[in-house]
Amino acid sequence: MTFPFHLLAPPDPATLPLPRPARPADGVTLLRGAVYAVPDGSRPLAVDVWLPEDATGPVPVVVFVHGGGWRTGLRDDLGPRFRDWRPGPFARLAQAGFAVACPDYRLSGEAPHPAQRDDLAALLDWLRTRAADLGLDTGRTVLWGESAGGHLAALTALTQPTGTISGCVTWYAPTDLPALAEDRPEGTYDPRDATGFEALLLGGAPADLPEAARDASPVAHAGADSPPFLLLHGTDDVLIPARQSVRLAEALRAAGHHPDLRLLSGGNHLWVGLSDADVAECYTRTVEFARRCTAADGEVTGAPPGRG
């Protein structure tokens, strides 16, 4: 007698019950840990979904992608400058009328590029499938990430089908992996090193995998159909030089766009070196950008930045 091995397959995440809702802040519902994908040979991938209560119709979506050098990180962590915010940054976005999705993705110790980009594409598919259940208008979706998460947000935004993404925000993100050797101070980065964060993402030293390094670089995917971009980077970033955001802005301009590039004087990685007011301004600018990019027909919010 043969065994029906198809019964061992996991259930379709699109059919699983949604988590029990919590109420972490006034006017906010949180569905924590909904499974959106079960990659073969990997752990299930989950997403936290923050929703505004009492919405009168489908709401726009912000997908936040966490950082951590592609090696570590928590899906709901915006960094140390925001951990004491009450309410937190995602609850505030929900209070402003957005749904916020904070997903896991496979880390570099689990799978190399392009697994992370594939995971975020699967997350977008899941959101579209569950849009009616969650009250989402996924036709109005902004991607946002910090550090390695900003890299993945940009890479995903630039490789999704035309019209899928309404806008993208990156905070101090790497965007051109082959150029890191030029942008980082001499002696601080070796593209032949197979143990660095970028090498672990690619599955080998960047110098040995030039095609993979290029494919993993958002600059290589900027084109005529790219969505609007807001790029924020500190001038004193010692981990990811601000030149990396400049490179993506230049690539987008060459493709006919007008990205909003903001270089913050004195800012280091994770916004170290900025005042609390400057950090809050980075957040406010991000929310305002998302609002402009996702404005419904008839809303007067100003033209979305970044389009040519």
From TrEMBL:
Highest taxon above the source species: Bacteria
InterPro entries documented for this protein: AB_hydrolase_fold (IPR029058), BD-FAE-like_dom (IPR049492), GDXG_lipolytic_enzyme (IPR050300)
Gene3D superfamilies membership: alpha/beta hydrolase (3.40.50.1820)
UniProt-listed Pfam families: BD-FAE
The BD-FAE-like domain, residue ranges: 48-252
Entry keyword set: Hydrolase
PANTHER family: AB HYDROLASE SUPERFAMILY PROTEIN C4A8.06C (PTHR48081), ALPHA_BETA HYDROLASE (PTHR48081:SF13)
Name of the protein: BD-FAE-like domain-containing protein
Organism of this sequence: Streptomyces ziwulingensis
